[in-house]
């Protein structure tokens, strides 16, 4: 029972990390109609900036702020310099251009920091474990990630549902032409939304830095799962991104933890482990196929 | 444009002069023997290739540019961590430079792409690291030598160490690919206790939280894991973050914890057990001289890889002494190499029937030495240990 709870917490933690990435991706796609493959690069930029700032100053706050600022800054520059030219083009051009950006960012990071992974320490205040239930100790840092992720979800909900900017974002997602006709500076709105998405990706990068190693190509590893989340949740829907992300996080973690054990009941140990590992990594994609079969536009379609 | 051309001409002339001045004294004594070193100098494994190269050059330098009295010209090229590139470099070495003796490859998959061409062309390959099971067993070859270990020995010795440490219930993990499955098979070959759990992780996995929870729930006496490179560092850090290292000790094979990895992980690694055929603090005179010379020249602690490469150079030197500096007669080279007439930094060293080492394995523990984590040697784990594949080898 304690094990199941711990695995569920692991699933939620992976889920909120995916949510931070998926929220930006789905907003950019829903509002601007741009497929941004380079979203993972912004995650990497955030992680690198935080790692470098942390080793230079030793301060977790400075690291957090530098990571956020770097990701949001780079994101807005990319929007201004590259993506702005692509809104009117078809998706193939966007995919090609943003794939080029991935190569550019990866090689740039190699030039700047080399291929050796960087390591970030967990901030002093968040070290150690906390007893969430009798018999279940869980790292404080991962609890903090879950808390921050849920706070961001709440903040995004308030921003999008309760503010004027949020109203424009919602309107932009559903009635783009009308918003433009009413005299709203759509270009500025796009840059801001893209910056917000980049900021969230950067936040995910900063927070995962102390758990994983910060290295070139880290963005692509998580980007594929992020796309799965966006498709499951419904393209353009932040609410869908939240539910999709937690669902994907839970399914991935629980399958990884329990499928080999179940298979071991019916077949020999090491074969069961190898097959189980394979099945578990397919699970998320099976989930996506199932969701698309039942709800072709995702769980919470934005343009319904 | 003119400036560029002039610069180009000047550097061309300088190169020509350099080559000429290098060639002249060599011509006076007969041309030096060329040894081709293909190794990984770029990417996350780049530091390993650097140690392999530097240690080999150190062995040459300590003998005044010679090995076994034969003047050597070492050609070094990067394989870029790509088997195809390693194969191309080997072809260039053999066809253009007429190299007969090659060494240096770190990764088994690159060795696999290169070694067949070298042996088929009548060349000799002396491995300072990668030694997969096929080359030790059925596909063994008179002209393939390993001065490191057979890959399985790394994991067998760790299994024996777990026995010695009284760990009756082990949880074992490795990535789901060939070397990972071999690692767990090797570990189980000598480990006598119960395997509480056997988990294969994904090779592209970065977050091991689910595995940490399984380990905690299984409550084993110890954990053995083989995760090469950056994966291992992530695994170890998450293991520490989950508060597991203080309750469940971890046992590793040497590739998961060398002097460089230790520097990256830092204090978190204190308390980890591992096995190796050598450590920088071994009480062996040849080892002490090597460590002192390496530190004086390169200002860092040599890794296991550096030691393997240093011994490779010494072994080649002993063989060249026997053949009078000739490598064309591979039968004569075989006879001169086989007795391993060199003072190994490991103390004891011999070649088995399949040209792979027979040697002792040591328990090593990460301890705090004057405020910094260091690898400290403990007891001998295995004595005169060879490998199980030697029986299948018929030259």
Mind explaining what this structure looks like?
Chain B: This is ABC transporter substrate-binding protein. Chain B: InterPro entries: BCAA_transport (IPR051010), Leu-bd (IPR028081), Peripla_BP_I (IPR028082), TAT_signal (IPR006311). Chain B: It holds the Pfam family Peripla_BP_6. Chain B: Residues 1-30 form the signal peptide. Chain B: Belongs to the leucine-binding protein family. The complex is a heterodimer of chains A (304) and B (395). Chain A is mainly α and 304 residues long. Helix content of chain A is 75%, strand content 3%. Chain A is built from 11 helices and 2 strands. Chain A has helices spanning 2-32, 39-57, 60-81, 91-113, 140-162, 164-174, 176-181, 186-208, 218-233, 238-264, 269-294, and strands at 129-133, 136-139. A two-stranded antiparallel ribbon of chain A has the order 1-2. In chain A, helix 9 packs across helix 11 (269-294) and helix 10 (238-264) packs antiparallel against helix 11 (269-294). Chain A starts with a helix and ends in a 10-residue tail after the last helix. The relative contact order of chain A is 0.19. In chain B, the strands form 2 sheets. In chain B, strands 7, 8, 9, 10, 11, 12, 13 and 14 form an 8-stranded mixed sheet that branches. In chain B, strands 2-3-1-4-5-6 form a 6-stranded mixed sheet. Chain B has helices at 2-29, 46-62, 83-96, 108-120, 133-136, 151-164, 178-190, 209-218, 230-241, 259-265, 285-298, 304-323, 330-337; strands at residues 33-39, 66-67, 70-78, 101-103, 124-127, 144-146, 169-175, 194-201, 222-225, 250-253, 273-276, 350-351, 357-369, 372-385. In chain B, strand 10, helix 10 (259-265) and strand 11 (273-276) form a beta-alpha-beta unit. Chain B is globular. In chain B, helix 2 packs across helix 11 and helix 2 crosses helix 12. Mean pLDDT of chain B is 88; it is low at 5-28. Chain B folds into 2 domains: 32-149 and 283-355, Response regulator (Rossmann fold, 3-Layer(aba) Sandwich); 152-276 and 361-392, Response regulator (Rossmann fold), CATH 3.40.50.2300. The chains are: A mainly alpha (304), B alpha/beta (395). The interface between A and B is large, with 39 and 33 residues.
């Amino acid at each position: 029972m304690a094990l199941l709870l711990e695995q569920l917490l692991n699933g939620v933690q992976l889920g909120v990390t995916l949510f931070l990435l998926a929220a930006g991706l789905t907003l950019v796609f829903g509002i601007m109609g741009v497929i941004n493959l380079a979203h993972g690069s912004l995650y990497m930029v955030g992680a690198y900036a935080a790692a470098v700032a942390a080793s230079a100053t030793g301060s977790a706050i400075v690291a957090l702020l530098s990571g956020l600022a770097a990701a949001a800054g780079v994101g807005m520059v990319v929007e201004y310099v590259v993506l702005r030219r692509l809104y009117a083009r078809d998706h193939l051009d966007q995919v090609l251009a943003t794939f080029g950006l991935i190569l550019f960012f990866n090689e740039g990071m190699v030039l700047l920091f080399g291929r050796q992974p960087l390591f970030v320490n967990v901030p002093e205040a968040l070290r150690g474990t906390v007893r969430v239930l009798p018999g279940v100790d869980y790292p404080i840092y991962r609890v903090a990630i879950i808390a921050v992720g849920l706070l961001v979800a709440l903040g995004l909900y308030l921003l999008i549902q309760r503010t004027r900017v949020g109203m424009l974002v919602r309107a932009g997602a559903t009635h783009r032409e009308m918003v433009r006709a009413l005299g709203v500076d759509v270009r500025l709105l796009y840059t801001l939304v893209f910056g917000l998405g980049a900021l969230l990706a950067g936040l995910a990068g900063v927070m995962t830095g102390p758990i994983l190693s910060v290295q070139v190509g880290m963005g692509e590893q998580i980007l594929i799962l992020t796309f799965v989340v966006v498709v499951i949740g419904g393209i353009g829907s932040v609410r869908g991104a939240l539910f999709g992300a937690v669902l994907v996080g839970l399914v991935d973690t629980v399958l990884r933890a329990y499928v080999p054990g179940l298979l071991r009941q019916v077949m020999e140990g090491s074969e069961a482990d190898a097959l189980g590992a394979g099945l578990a990594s397919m699970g998320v994609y099976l989930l996506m196929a199932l969701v698309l079969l039942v709800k072709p536009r995702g769980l919470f379609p934005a343009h319904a | 444009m003119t400036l560029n051309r002039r610069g180009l001409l000047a550097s061309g002339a300088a190169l020509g002069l350099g080559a000429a001045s290098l060639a002249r004294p060599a011509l006076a004594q007969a041309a030096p023997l060329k040894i081709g070193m293909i190794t990984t100098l770029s990417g996350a494994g780049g530091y390993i290739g650097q140690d392999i190269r530097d240690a080999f050059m150190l062995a040459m330098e300590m003998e005044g540019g010679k090995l076994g009295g034969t003047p050597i010209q070492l050609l070094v090229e990067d394989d870029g961590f790509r088997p195809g590139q390693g194969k191309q470099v080997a072809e260039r070495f053999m066809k253009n430079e007429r190299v007969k003796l090659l060494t240096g490859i770190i990764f088994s998959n690159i060795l696999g792409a290169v070694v067949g061409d070298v042996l088929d062309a009548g060349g000799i390959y002396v491995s300072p690291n990668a030694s997969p099971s096929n080359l030790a067993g059925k596909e063994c070859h008179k002209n393939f030598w390993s001065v490191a270990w057979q890959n399985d020995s790394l994991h067998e010795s760790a299994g024996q160490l777990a026995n010695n440490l009284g760990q009756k219930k082990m949880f074992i993990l490795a990535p789901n690919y060939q070397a990972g499955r071999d690692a767990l098979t090797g570990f189980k070959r000598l480990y006598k206790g119960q395997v509480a759990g056997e988990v294969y992780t994904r090779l592209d996995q970065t977050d091991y939280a689910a595995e940490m929870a399984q380990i905690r729930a299984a409550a084993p006496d110890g954990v053995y894991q083989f995760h090469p490179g950056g994966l291992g560092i992530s695994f170890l850090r998450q293991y520490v973050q989950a508060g597991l290292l203080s309750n469940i000790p971890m046992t590793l094979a040497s590739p998961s914890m060398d002097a460089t990895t230790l520097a990256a992980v830092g204090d978190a690694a204190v308390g980890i057990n591992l096995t190796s055929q050598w450590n920088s603090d071994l009480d062996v005179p040849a080892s002490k001289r090597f460590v002192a010379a390496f530190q004086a020249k390169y200002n860092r602690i040599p890794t296991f890889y550096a030691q393997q490469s240093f011994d490779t150079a010494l072994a080649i030197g002993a063989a060249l002494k026997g053949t009078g500096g000739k490598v064309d007669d591979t039968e004569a080279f075989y006879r001169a190499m086989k007795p391993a007439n060199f003072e190994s930094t490991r103390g004891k060293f011999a070649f088995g029937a399949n040209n792979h080492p027979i040697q002792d394995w040591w328990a090593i523990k990460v301890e705090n030495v004057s405020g910094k984590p260091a690898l400290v040697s403990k007891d001998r784990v295995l004595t005169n240990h060879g490998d199980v594949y030697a029986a299948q080898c018929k030259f």
